[in-house]
Amino acid sequence: MAIEKTSVVVISGTLERLQMAAMVASVAAVSGHEVTVFLSMNALPLFVRGTAVRAPAEGEMGVLMQSKQVPEFKMLFEQAVELGEARILPCSMAMDVMGVERDQLEGYLGEATGLTKFLADVQGSQVWTF
Amino acid sequence: MGPRMIVDGKGSFCPGPLMELIAALKQVHVGDELEVLSTDKGSANDIPEWVRKVGHEHLSTTEQDGVWHIVVRKAK
To answer: A5-129 — its CATH code?
Structure first.
């Protein structure tokens, strides 16, 4: 059987979207899918090492989640990499705009990736956008 | 076979208990049993689904005082 490929594009910096993206990525990765996550736009600043930026709740559910023991989205992305076949790729354009280098980002992130490479890599896979 | 390992995922929400099970599976031998404790009903339904998909054995699921006990045998 061909390997199932799941791709996740995250451009939002809100808690609910990051949480859902991390859940899809981690569960797909531990279920044997080859997972590629592309972090761009408002999602990327949250993955700068030591950042004070926190993902704000978008609505009622996000507020509720903040008061419960929901697995942290960064931990889920990291587990996707550690326990499965997942790559979490920072968008090179967003990095350029922010002026950050690869070593300023969380350690479990992969290489800076441009859209051309990402599109080529994920051709034929299911794509989730958040 | 070693003693059954308890994976305590109580209080955590989906997919927390599943991730804890997967991390625990890496530490045990083929044939060993693990018992996941979860207070999250969604995880109680979803963990057996994952176990079947990846080819381990789901032995039982029981609920006691709001805690689900999901027993799994590592099959590979």
So the answer is: 3.40.1260.10
